[in-house]
């Protein structure tokens, strides 16, 4: 490493987190004026959430360190405690590796731990996907991280404008688009014939030559205790459709156990011959999976983000993405089997949509790396409209 290289510490905490920062990591690693430091923690270390750390290593990134901070239970209490542990562990790692900049992603509870530790240690914090609007605790976390961050990389024009209205200095806000679009733009989207066999999981075989659904439905933290009922409505709708379905396991947010229980109970009771459950896919295989599916169902932001970029028909359920920008590819419904079924059938009839650059054009990673290499940071923050 040259003494002139700026050390950029990227913190990866989950499968979605990795998919939305991978191209930035690659661009930082390849930039002559930057050195990549990588901390991997939280659910990215856990087998039941797909052992994301193994995917990271297979992609050629060796973690500088791992950060164990998750308290088991998937309740609001364990989320709060995990956030606290994350601050403790990340502060120790930052002290050890002494980054020049810490880069954190989006709006998860692990993200705010990164921002708090970095900001209190006078380390410039860079933040992607700020300024967006959604439901659940993510909405509060995202805006709190914005106020703790020193440079911002929003994904859309509206998010850019919202950051300015939040009082962020225009000189620190850079409209780059979302790095998740880079994965789509840089991937061969042809569906490998053995894709569904690569990832094991449990359930019926899926024939890639026939139409299939993808379902990804996470718990909603502000609706804790309702996950079992909510996932039951989705399962009922999918059973009425009867199309072969690749179902991804929910994330680690509070309420995950309720959603997982609903999936297990349904499988044990009905032994469906059209469902296969998966823990994880690599970022590239995930976008291939989406691009070839007949419809994406659930409440993941990928239906609104990557889905809009690829024109994937999407049925968005419930409040988790409430207020987020979306393309014409999305139909919004409540937690009602009848409504979900009707929306899926409408999307199956419609087919692919026109692609949208709402969240960027697929060049965010290189833009962010170049800005990180040249930006001047000011640790002391102030509302931009205060002289």
Features:
387 residues, 2 domains, alpha/beta, 15 helices, 7-stranded mixed sheet, 13 strands, Rossmann fold
Topology:
Blueprint: E1 6-12, H1 15-19, H2 22-30, E2 34-41, H3 52-58, E3 65-67, H4 76-97, E4 101-105, H5 109-120, E5 125-128, H6 136-148, E6 151-153, H7 157-165, H8 180-186, H9 195-198, E7 202-203, E8 213-216, H10 227-241, E9 245-248, H11 256-270, E10 275-278, H12 283-292, E11 295-298, H13 306-310, E12 314-317, E13 330-333, H14 337-350, H15 364-374
Parallel strand pairs: 1-2, 1-4, 2-3, 4-5, 5-6, 8-9, 8-11, 9-10, 11-12, 12-13
Antiparallel strand pairs: 7-10
Give me the count of strands: 13
Percent of residues in helical segments?
40-55%
Give the class from helix and strand content and strand pairing.
Answer: alpha/beta
CATH T-level fold name of the largest domain = Rossmann fold
- Overall, the morphology is globular
User: What's the tally of helices?
Assistant: 15
Could you name the CATH class of the largest domain? Alpha Beta
Q: How big a fraction of the residues is strand?
A: 5-15%
Which oligomeric state applies?
A: single chain
Count of domain modules = 2
Distance between the termini: 40 Å
What is the second-level CATH architecture of the largest domain? Answer: 3-Layer(aba) Sandwich
Sketch the topology as an H/E string, one letter per element. Answer: EHHEHEHEHEHEHHHEEHEHEHEHEEHH
Mean pLDDT: 96
Main sheet properties: 7 strands, mixed
Query: Rg to the nearest angstrom?
Result: 20 Å
């Amino acid at each position: 490493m040259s003494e002139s290289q700026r050390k950029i510490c990227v913190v990866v905490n989950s499968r979605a987190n990795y998919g939305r920062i991978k191209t930035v990591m690659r661009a930082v690693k390849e930039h002559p004026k930057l050195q990549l430091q990588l901390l991997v923690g939280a659910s990215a270390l856990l087998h039941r959430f797909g052992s994301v750390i193994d995917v990271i290593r297979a992609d050629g990134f060796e973690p500088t360190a791992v950060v164990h901070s998750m308290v088991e239970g998937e309740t609001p209490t364990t989320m709060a405690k995990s956030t606290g542990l994350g601050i403790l562990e990340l502060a120790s790692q930052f002290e050890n590796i002494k980054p020049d900049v810490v880069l954190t992603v989006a709006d998860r509870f692990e993200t705010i731990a990164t921002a708090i530790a970095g900001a209190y240690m006078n380390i410039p914090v860079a933040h992607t996907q700020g300024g967006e609007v959604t439901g659940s605790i993510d909405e509060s976390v995202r805006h709190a991280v914005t106020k703790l961050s020193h440079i911002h990389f929003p994904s859309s024009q509206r998010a850019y404008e919202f950051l300015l209205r939040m009082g962020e200095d225009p000189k620190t806000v850079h409209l780059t688009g979302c790095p998740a679009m880079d994965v789509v733009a840089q991937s061969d989207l042809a569906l490998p014939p053995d894709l569904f066999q690569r990832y094991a999981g449990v359930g019926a075989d899926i024939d890639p030559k026939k139409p299939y659904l993808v379902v990804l439905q996470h718990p909603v933290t502000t609706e804790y205790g309702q996950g079992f009922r909510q996932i039951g409505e989705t399962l009922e709708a999918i059973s009425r459709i009867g199309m072969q379905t690749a179902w991804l396991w929910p994330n680690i947010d509070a309420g995950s156990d309720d959603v997982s229980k609903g999936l297990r109970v349904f499988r044990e009771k009905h032994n469906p011959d059209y469902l296969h459950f998966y823990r994880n896919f690599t970022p590239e295989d995930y976008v291939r999976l989406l691009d070839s599916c007949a419809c994406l169902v659930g409440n993941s932001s990928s239906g609104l983000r990557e889905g809009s970029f690829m024109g994937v028909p999407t049925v968005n359920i419930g409040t988790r993405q409430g207020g987020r920008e979306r393309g014409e590819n999305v139909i919004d419904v409540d937690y009602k089997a009848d409504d979900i079924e009707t929306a899926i059938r409408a999307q199956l009839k419609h087919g692919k949509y026109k692609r949208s650059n709402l969240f960027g054009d697929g060049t965010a990673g290189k833009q962010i790396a170049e800005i990180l290499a040249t930006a001047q940071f000011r640790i002391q923050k102030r509302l931009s409209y205060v002289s």
